[in-house]
Amino acid sequence: MDWGTAADSLTAIDPIWAQLFNFYIAFISFAVLNVMTGVFCNSAIKAAERDHEMVIHSLLQSRKEFKDLVSNLFQKIDDLGLGMITISEFERHFNDDSVRAFFESLEMGAVDAWTLFASLDADGDNVISLNDFTERCIQLHGPARSVDLYALTQQN
Questions:
Q1: Which CATH number fits domain 59-155: 3.30.2290.10, 3.40.50.620, 1.10.238.10, 3.30.460.10?
Q2: Which of 111, 110, 74, 108 is nearest to 93 (CA)?
Q3: CB 103 within 8 A of CB 116
Q4: Whose CA, among 9, 22, 149, 156, lies 20 to 30 Å from 64?
Q5: pTM for the complete prediction?
Q6: Is residue 96 within a helix (H) or strand (E), and if so which, with residue range?
Q7: How far is the C-alpha of 120 from the C-alpha of 144, rounded, in Å?
Q8: Would you state the pLDDT for residue 16?
């Protein structure tokens, strides 16, 4: 039996039944298409999430963008343009709202400039190079991970 025969039979009873039948067929067709589209999109998204190469590329891109942000902050703090930040330069810029907001966004907020400077000065020579600044910001930003905690327990 095709749709036309069923619709004609309903029209013979009352035309409203044929219209309801057509509405029902259209509604069910759209519902089935929506479900199929949802299943297809969901499987495509899951496949993309598992694409290891894409994940690596995304992480590398995020790291590059982060390094660029840190480098821009370093250039802002380095008043003399020597490629090194001293504690006096760091203190002068520490109370700047944009500098503090940057460190807080990295979850590296500190009570005072000295504490944060000491955390960033890995070799303890009282100056921070761009490379040291970038690497320490990468290491220190965010909450402690299990690898960080393990390294800490191995030091003691």
A1: 1.10.238.10
A2: 74
A3: yes
A4: 149
A5: 0.57
A6: none
A7: 16
A8: 92
